[in-house]
Amino acid sequence: MTIKDIARECGVSVSTVSRVLNNHPDVSEAVRRKVLSAVEERGYIPNNSARDLVRSRSDAVGVVVRGTGNLFFSAMIKTISRQLEQRGYTMVLHFLDSDADEVKAGAILEREKKLRGLIFLGGRFDYTSAELALVGVPYVCCSYTNVFGSLDEGEYSSVSIDDHETARRAVEYLIRLGHRRIAALVPSVDDHSISELRYDGYLSALIDSGLEPDPALLEETGGCFEMPETYEGMCRLLGRTRDFTALFVLSDTTAIAAMKALEDHGLHVPEDVSVIAIDGLNVSEYVTPTLTTMVQPAEEMGRESVRILAEMLETGQTRHVRLEATLREGASVRSV
Amino acid sequence: MTIKDIARECGVSVSTVSRVLNNHPDVSEAVRRKVLSAVEERGYIPNNSARDLVRSRSDAVGVVVRGTGNLFFSAMIKTISRQLEQRGYTMVLHFLDSDADEVKAGAILEREKKLRGLIFLGGRFDYTSAELALVGVPYVCCSYTNVFGSLDEGEYSSVSIDDHETARRAVEYLIRLGHRRIAALVPSVDDHSISELRYDGYLSALIDSGLEPDPALLEETGGCFEMPETYEGMCRLLGRTRDFTALFVLSDTTAIAAMKALEDHGLHVPEDVSVIAIDGLNVSEYVTPTLTTMVQPAEEMGRESVRILAEMLETGQTRHVRLEATLREGASVRSV
Description:
Two copies of one chain form a homodimer. The longest helix of chain A is centred in the last third of the chain and has 18 residues, at about 300-315. The N and C termini of chain A lie far apart (about 70 Å). Chain A is α/β, with parallel strands linked by helices. Chain A folds into three domains: about 5-55, Orthogonal Bundle (434 Repressor (Amino-terminal Domain)); about 55-160 and about 300-325, 3-Layer(aba) Sandwich (Rossmann fold), CATH 3.40.50.2300; about 165-295, Rossmann fold (3-Layer(aba) Sandwich), CATH 3.40.50. The first copy, chain A, has twelve helices and twelve strands. Chains A and B meet through helix 5, strand 2, helix 6 and helix 11 of A and helix 5, strand 2, helix 6 and helix 11 of B.
């Protein structure tokens, strides 16, 4: 089956078939439909090798993912994959171990796969310009920013929510509902990453409302938003004190693990403890009780990352986009 | 920073540095450590372009994923990605819409990305040899087989659990605990895919135990294991009858959605209804009640798929691997 067979069958020229396949506008709708239905029927697959030979540059874009247990990134990878495909790029996906250096991993990937650009999903972002000199292609930091680093805004692009502000809003919501003793479960308070930013947001909310942060109500879990570590961290916190009415957790899956630990200790959510998180996964709408969470616009973040990277590749222009997280009220929070 | 700088710094020859970087065995451990620590310290990245030029064939392997909401595949993609990387392949990931034709999508991807091989994660597998002739490279069907098709075993490879048998064992477990009225929630009873196979396993278990399958206890949800469709299907079933003590659901996430529908109708799991599923996701250990489920060995399935594909590329040898699912008892099932 060749393009000539399709042209013969439809009674049009080969160049007309080619124009249809390449989405040129100068073809009548009737001819367009006829050609596409013949292509569909015969299972004809256009041979792009000639076009590929002309295109000398690689079309590969690396996507480096931190935190393999992170379901939030799973959703985003799908969007990024589709968006890259639509723009003619090939996604080269690389999963990092929690403690790996994403800049070095990205730089190695860049050389091995001859990447044109990189998207980092999550990262410890206190790198300096010198360290980042390893990366020789444009890159977008998705879901985090270089807030701790010494990078100039013009050196990179980013797409994220305002982590500090989103955490502050979540905790303020608990305070508005009457909670005063609010515990927090965080991977790390000083990891130079979103964990630190969100913890700072929690502190700001307390302090701005005249509440004294109590060190006994804070538990660091370590790791990278994994459920087992979070469950254990919650158990340690409960072993120390039960003198709190609400809990702030940094992600949906870790909130689900924390709720499990609460239930296993005979504490009911939200009757005994209210729980709020950040992410907005689908599965959080189906756990019992439904999780109250600040929804990150995952699809939009993925779409924007690809759009901005494509723009950087064409024009060299960097961009920093902040998207809004929105509260999704579930049944895991009550007023006291 | 070049290989010469590293050699000079370590006081060894360039070829010694090269041997260390290429994992040759004929280097002393002391020299090896010295070189690697210099490489690490200086952030030196080996330039593989010469090697790449010699390698004339593409190293791309396509992974076509059916069902974008399927968390089971999310876990497997990570394993497959790492295994492909370790063997020097590049993973080209493609997510299908539920109703898309995976063979055509795979064939298009093969030509566009010059793939050397394909791994299909999930699929409607009643294609014929003629239809599959579109695919011009070796491929592995992961998590399903061509049981409905007319393919010869030598034409393709597969890695999966025995879906019929796993479903039968799950339902037999419920029967052993005294359940007689066992409802089932399935995407489709005749989709020529794992949904049909698992439904047949449910029927076998009932019939082999002398129980009459009751059509009122079966609900088809349509779709591809999505949570909203499953939740609605469960509501329809509950609108018709509550005369059952147990429920068999085909995947973990859909079981979580079904448990939510039960709770929302005032039915408690497992006091009023026992629930069992197939998959074994991490998150299922943290929902309340913990889900009882048949655990598919996801990592092993991913590893085996890559191993078998690599073998096919080298020797042309096809293989069919059946792995065992194991029961993980949670708190969602009780005896009656």
